[in-house]
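Sequence only, no structure available. Ideas?
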Amino acid sequence: MRLTHRVSSIGAALGISVSALLFSSAAPSNAAATADPCAGKSETYVIKTYTRNFQAVPLRCGTSTWGYRHIVAKHGFDDGQIANTVARGRQSFGFYYTNLNQCPPMTFKVVFNDGALGGTGVRPQGIITAYYQPGHITSIAHTGSTPAC
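Reply:
I predicted one. Tokens follow.
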């Protein structure tokens, strides 16, 4: 009888501990996901590094005209699409792009600068902007307009 009581007490204590752990760990991760990663940081602070093969492409906090702050304010931040486009998209002069198979046609474009950030000595500047663009890059290049669906 005593052994049964101890086992059930230990099981109940473990259940409460696991529940408390799950509840307490869920709150900070939700809060962290909504917090501004650039709050109090300089424009050159790297908040994330995306990779393509062995090349690192940093996303810096930036300003209202480039980087994370610009993307959030002007285009909306889509981390998954940026990661996919940098890793698997096509590369052209100064940008990566992914043609999204949808109607109407849409492209996701990530513009970057692998050179120095003007006058700061920080190299590379990294991602300047990222946004959805109507039409596919290949269809726009050939016809000058987006095809009808």
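The longest helix spans residues 2-34.
Hope that gets you unstuck.
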